[in-house]
Amino acid sequence: MSRESERVASEVQRSVLADTLDLAVPLAMAELWDCPDKALAAIAREAASIVGSRGDVLLFGGQHCASTFNQLARGLAAMALVAPGGATYLGRHWCCMPGCSGSAADHPQPGEGSRTVTDFPLPVTSADGEVAA
Ligand SMILES: [Zn+2]
Question: How do residues 74-118 score in pLDDT, each as one tens digit?
């Protein structure tokens, strides 16, 4: 396979993945719409871990390709619902702001939107580096 045909094949794979996510992410958002924010954050974290460890099957295929794709779509949907600026991937953007023009749009900040956003506090460390419980 020449470099040009490899580049074209890669672009086609990327386009198919993005187009398929355009269908799957809104469906997953509808499914997750009533989930509490903490559950959405947990779903997004779990999906990031799974996609991070198996992301190569999305490019090259394999035993867990479908389940990894589903985790990617579900994770993006959870992030789109819980993150104030939504989720953007492969040039596509999903969020819960009706009529959103994209990731650069003026998204509601925590406390302004119809969905509440949970802020996860960072651990407090003392001057000697001890982490408070
Ligand atoms: Zn948006």
Answer: 999 999 999 989 999 999 999 988 889 998 998 887 766 555 444
Helices vs. strands in the chain: H and E counts, helices first:
4, 2
Interval between CA 93 and ligand 1 midpoint (Å): 6
Q: Cα(68)–Cα(88) distance, rounded to whole angstroms?
A: 18
Ligand 1: distance of its center to the CA of 83 in Å? 10
CB 57 within 8 A of CB 63: yes
87-89 and 92-94 beta bridge pairing: antiparallel
Classify burial at 53, counting beta carbons within 10 Å of its beta carbon; exposed 0-12, middle 13-18, buried 19 or more.
exposed
User: How many whole angstroms separate alpha carbon 52 and alpha carbon 69?
Assistant: 12
Q: How far is the CA of 77 from the centre of ligand 1 (A)?
A: 12
Tokens of residue 13, six digits: 């794979």
CA of 81 from ligand 1 middle (Å) equals: 10
- Token output for 87: 């989720």
Neighbour tally for 80: CB within 10 Å:
26
